[in-house]
Amino acid sequence: MVYIYIINPINNMKKIFAILLFTFSITICYSQKITFKDILNSLNSALNSNTIRPQNVFIKEYVVNSSSKGNLFGGHNKIVEQIVLPQNTVKWYYRITIIEKNSNYQYPNNETLFYCIHNGIQPKNFVNLRVPFNIFVINSSGDSYNFLEGKPFNTLRDYCVYNTDSYIGQCPLVTGNIWIGIQNASTLTGAKAIIEVVAMVREG
């Protein structure tokens, strides 16, 4: 026996579009989430080869205002920092920690991102403020300027992260000029951001 189903093409297209949109959203969200377990797995063979070593690039702190304060009172709700990588860098990692604006919190020496990567242990990313931030990797001075000015800018889409708080990421871009940009996406709450960058450098 053969069954013939009559399907409303309009409703069917709506369902297909909804499914595709949901799948695309899940894919994007998943691609943006990098666990430190993934980082350790990617580092395992390199660290065991005795030819690649982590090198601390910088640890810096910034106050990043809310968008309303930035727009109305001239405060900055965006920060951009150039990343000057050591020669022979093969990949770099970063951790952005979002804390209260007036907090004096700092990672102790044995909890910094560099210490954790160097010793192959999982870091505890301190979180005490759920303020959404956007993260961008930018590779031109003009785009970094436009980012700060609120004008259209180009970024590396594979390494953009939206609406996150504290976050650990990695990037294989090691040539040319590189900036990391962060934006406070909250309309009301200012915050402090601790940015750490660690490079993996090939020796010899």
Index terms:
four-stranded antiparallel sheet, globular, disordered N terminus, 204 residues, Jelly Rolls, alpha+beta
Overall 3D geometry?
globular
Order of helices and strands: HHEHEEHEHEEEE
Number of strands: 8
Beta-strand percent range: 25-35%
User: What's the mean pLDDT score?
Assistant: 81
- Sheet bearing the most strands, described? 4 strands, antiparallel
Main sheet: strand order: 1-8-3-6
Describe this structure in a few short sentences.
The chain is built from five helices and eight strands. The protein is an alpha+beta fold and 204 residues long. The protein is globular and about 50 Å long.
Give the SSE layout.
Blueprint: H1 9-32, H2 36-48, E1 52-64, H3 67-73, E2 78-82, E3 89-100, H4 113-119, E4 133-138, H5 141-149, E5 161-164, E6 167-171, E7 179-184, E8 191-202
Give an account of the 3D structure.
It is a single chain. The strands form 2 sheets. Strands 1-8-3-6 form a 4-stranded antiparallel sheet, with helices on one face. A 4-stranded antiparallel sheet has the order 2-7-4-5, with helices on one face. It is globular. The model is unreliable at 1-32 (pLDDT under 50). It has one domain (35-202): Jelly Rolls (Sandwich). The chain has helices at residues 9-32, 36-48, 67-73, 113-119, 141-149; strands at 52-64, 78-82, 89-100, 133-138, 161-164, 167-171, 179-184, 191-202. The protein is 29% helix and 31% strand. The protein is an alpha+beta fold and 204 residues long.
